[in-house]
Design a protein that fits this description.
Layout: E1 7-12, H1 19-33, H2 39-47, E2 50-56, E3 59-65, H3 73-84, E4 89-94, H4 105-116, E5 123-127, H5 131-138, H6 159-172, E6 176-177, H7 181-188, H8 193-207, E7 212-213, H9 215-228, H10 230-238, H11 242-254, H12 262-268, H13 272-285, E8 288-290, E9 296-298, H14 301-310, H15 312-318, H16 325-329
Parallel strand pairs: 1-4, 4-5, 6-7
Antiparallel strand pairs: 2-3, 8-9
């Protein structure tokens, strides 16, 4: 809860892919707060008067400014500090783990940390929907934010609570949900709220008012998502060597509890040492993550389905009892 009289500056980094987009999200948060007269508006004017905030059907698209060049991260963080000198604020950075998807994500986080550590009067809260990737930002020994924050691990939202809440939202929109569909979607997304939200959005659009969300609706929604990301996934898949592709398929099919054991090596047809090197390389690339329980999982649950869709016959051969095989076979 916020201290009385303190305003919240909410910055959402969800889906950013480069430095310019990340800076725009900070500037957008400032413009939202600048609707009030006072220090925010004055500071923002120094960064460049805003002509237009562009919005698309799914939210924020970008900013147009009259300044010769957009403000830099250091300028934006300095602006936030200046505002805090005359207005009590707390800065909430949501989905901060998505900064890792930027080519210079580590450098961006390092620059951010360098500025924040000197802002002693400001309170910063960092949040994200992917627990493993959040640990990469704050608990990895080479991260700029290593040992710089107090961890509050909320864990995944319990299935029963989340599915009941989602079902109620669908009912409010005059849509029924068949038994087991939301639970299946939850499992496929590993309970990651952002990914589950994307699936539910597609199911909402496909079902229509008065419709019913069924397993076929879920499959169609997943197909839309995979098709929209096909080029991106294909580039990433082709960027790794064959042994790493085999490991990705193996983890997709049988899970990553024992990826460095002989059984997994035999399954993917590689030597144990080769598997270990492949897993380490995929973890370094951010494609696989090691959970707190020691299991290797895909950082992107949709990429896991895409890998299996790309190799449907190999998926069947490696694990004919794969519980998601019914869905994967219909995504082709």
């Amino acid at each position: 809860s916020l201290e009385k009289g303190r305003s919240l500056l909410l910055i959402d980094f969800m889906g950013v892919s480069n430095r310019e987009q990340a800076n725009e999200r900070i500037q957008l948060a400032l413009t939202r707060m600048a609707g009030q007269k006072g220090p925010v508006k004055r500071v923002l004017e120094k960064l460049g008067e805003l002509n237009e905030i562009r919005l698309g059907p799914f939210g924020f698209k970008g900013l147009n400014t009259v300044s010769a060049s957009p403000p830099t991260l250091s300028q934006l963080l300095a602006a936030i500090e200046e505002i805090s000198q005359s207005k009590k604020i707390a800065v909430f950075m949501d989905e901060i783990q998505d900064l890792l998807d930027m080519d210079d994500g580590e450098a961006y986080l390092s620059e951010m940390r360098g500025a924040i550590q000197h802002q002693e009067a400001l309170a910063y809260v960092f949040a994200g929907s992917n627990r493993e990737r959040m640990h990469r930002v704050f608990d990895h020994s080479k991260s700029p934010f290593f040992k710089q924050v107090i961890d509050i691990d909320l864990g995944p939202i319990p299935l029963e609570r989340f599915s009941a809440w989602l079902a109620e939202r669908f009912r409010e929109g005059e849509r029924l949900v068949a038994d087991g569909v939301l639970e299946r979607a939850y499992a496929l997304c590993r309970g990651i709220p952002g990914d589950l939200q994307r699936v539910c959005y597609e199911m909402w659009e496909l079902s229509g008012k008065g419709g019913t969300v069924e397993l076929e609706t879920l499959i169609s929604s997943l197909k839309l998502i995979l098709d929209s990301r096909n080029d991106m996934y294909l580039i990433g898949y082709r960027a790794v060597v064959k042994s790493q592709q085999s490991v990705l398929l193996g983890v997709a099919c049988v899970g990553g509890n024992k990826v460095k054991g002989k059984g997994f090596a035999d399954l993917v047809g590689l030597a144990s040492g080769t598997v270990k090197r492949a897993v380490d390389a995929l973890e370094a690339r951010g494609e696989l993550l090691k959970t707190l329980e020691g299991e290797y999982v895909f950082s992107d649950p949709f990429y896991r389905l895409w890998v299996m869709r790309l190799n449907p016959y190999a998926t069947l051969k490696r694990n004919p009892n794969q519980p998601d095989l019914q869905i994967v076979s219909r995504l082709v």
